[in-house]
Amino acid sequence: MTLRFLGIWPNTPSDQSPTIWVEEETGDLIIQSWKADEATVRQAQEVGSVPGHTTDIPEHETVIRLPANMLQFIPRPDGEVRGDTGS
User: Fold this and answer.
1) How far apart are CA 43 and CA 86, in angstroms?
2) Within a domain: residue 84?
3) How does pLDDT run across 2-15, given as a tens digit for each residue?
4) pLDDT by residue (tens digit) across 50-79?
5) Does residue 78 fall inside a structural domain?
């Protein structure tokens, strides 16, 4: 697996660092961010997704909250990533 750094939370303190990488071979995004709080998880479960699909969250998954300003680091279909703020 080869990861490429895409970006980190602008002006990040050293102990809170939402970060995004891309796995080069698959294009999968690897995201470090804050776990969603219980109220957010409950609301996501209430809203659901596809009719008939369970809203349970398996042990090997979690719900994260990605800050809006991190969207700039997600690759676009044309391959553009707007930039990183890593040092």
Assistant:
1) 33
2) no
3) 999 999 887 777 77
4) 888 888 888 998 999 888 888 888 888 776
5) no
